[in-house]
Design goal:
Elements (H helix, E strand, L loop, with lengths): L1 H29 L1 E8 L2 E8 L10 H8 L3 E6 L11 H7 L3 E7 L17 E2 L6 E4 L9 H4 L4 E5 L10 H14 L3 E5 L35 H10 L11 E4 L23 H10 L19 E4 L8 E2 L17 E5 L12 H9 L10 H6 L3 H7 L4 H6 L2 H11 L7
Parallel strand pairs: 3-4, 3-7, 4-6, 7-8, 8-9
Antiparallel strand pairs: 1-2, 5-6, 10-12, 11-12
Length: 412
């Protein structure tokens, strides 16, 4: 009887251990998922814990081995940080990575310069590393500025708009790397407007630094995916392609909300501005202010020529806008800082402003066509065509773009 009881208890104990181990293994399996890393066309898989979105910069177990014993150039600014707020440059130096130079886009390495402001070369005060400006007359680094670089690491936070110039800087970096046989590594970051593909397709004759490629205003891609598209579509000079490695984000899907940990440029101070940026930026090609010189940049719009209303503001010089448009002038318009997030490129505000301005002849300037990437949008607004009709005119181009970009998407 005693032996029988002992035997039964032993069996039950062993069964409990087996079930406990089995459920523990399943729980561990649920905590992990596969990530795909495309490296020179080859796919690798690695298990990662699901604990929130990780940027390419945080995916360092993948890229650090590739940087060891190499001479590295870094294209980055204040957005190039890890989840613990450490800047990529500081992190790589801690890891004994041999950084040779920093290459800074529009707004500079620390991200404090005005839009379009001339940035001079210099040294980073914290690290002593030389900084080369990639804006103004030096958008593409010269061969002598790339001398001795084995791998260029690109880490900039994009916002998903064609006229946001970081993707133009990406193009020129890719071209310079291709010409000088330098491998380019893009550390990917989520697109805060990642699910929106919208707007008129740029026409080649209107290419500029605020729009280099035949894509919609909002492309709905991460900057790593965009790099793959530039390469795959052979958009670089003479159809060149660079040696490209994209270090992907982890645990990221395109429809996930993503709040930027640091503002990507001086005049995009928060999530609301980033969401409205693509819609309101068209005002930069008009006589209407988008709030530069206020604390609500790209969340308001107004002009002295719009009807008087309860809402008004007066642009004053501030960080990122030393000489804001309509400085010291009382502007009437709308405050959009508390509206719900938009899910498409909105035209209603620019159409309303054009229809209600006191002088239509002074409303548009030449920059509007560069921003729109076509003359048609201005012509449609001037002709009084409805937003629905204008949007319908984009449909074919957007459908064709979506079909083309499929080959370059990394995330669902």
């Amino acid at each position: 009887m005693i032996y029988s009881s002992f035997f039964k208890n032993t069996v039950l104990f062993l069964l409990l251990i087996v079930f406990s181990c089995g459920s523990s293994i399943k729980r561990e399996e649920k905590k992990e998922k596969g990530k795909e890393i495309k490296e020179n066309g080859e796919e690798k898989r690695e298990k990662v814990a699901i604990d929130g979105i990780k940027t390419g910069a945080d995916n360092f177990s993948v890229y650090l081995p590739l940087l060891k014993n190499k001479k590295i150039g870094i294209v980055s600014n204040q957005t190039g940080i890890l989840s613990n707020k450490t800047h990529l440059v500081d992190f790589l130096l801690e890891q004994k990575i041999n950084i040779q130079k920093i290459y800074a886009p529009e707004h500079g390495f620390r991200g404090t310069a005005d839009a379009g402001e001339h940035i001079v070369d210099g040294k980073d005060a914290k690290t002593g590393l030389p900084i080369i400006s990639l804006y103004g007359n030096n958008k593409k680094p010269k061969p002598e500025q790339l001398a001795g670089i084995d791998i260029m690491v690109f880490d900039l936070q994009d916002v998903g708009a064609r006229f946001y110039t970081y993707i133009s800087s990406l193009h020129y970096i890719m071209e310079a790397c291709a010409e000088n046989n330098i491998q380019l590594m893009v550390l990917d970051r989520p697109n805060p407007n990642g699910n929106i593909v919208d707007g008129p397709i740029l026409e080649k004759e209107f290419s500029s630094f605020v729009g280099m490629h035949t894509i919609p205003t909002m492309h709905g891609m991460t900057i790593g995916e965009y790099a793959k598209m530039i390469n795959g579509e052979k958009w670089l000079k003479n159809g060149m392609q660079c040696q490209l490695v994209v270090i992907p984000c982890l645990n990221y899907k395109r429809d996930m909300a993503y709040s930027l940990p640091v503002k990507p440029s001086p005049n995009l101070p928060n999530d609301q501005a980033i969401n409205l940026y693509s819609s309101l930026c068209f005002f930069e090609g008009t006589n209407v202010s988008v709030g530069r010189g206020t604390e609500k940049q790209f969340q308001i719009y107004g002009s002295p020529l719009l009807p008087k209303s309860d809402f008004s503001f007066t642009p004053k010089p501030n960080l990122g806008a030393k000489e804001p448009p309509l400085k010291d002038q009382l502007c009437y318009g709308e405050d959009l800082s508390a509206i719900a997030k938009v899910k498409q490129l909105e035209l209603k505000w620019i159409i309303k402003a054009y229809q209600t301005t006191s002088d239509k002849s002074k409303f548009f300037n030449d920059f509007f066509t560069k921003l729109a990437g076509t003359k048609k949008l201005q012509q449609q607004i001037e002709a009084g065509i409805s937003e629905t009709e204008i949007r319908n005119s984009w449909k074919k181009g957007i459908e064709d773009f979506k079909a083309m970009r499929k080959a370059y998407l990394i995330y669902n």
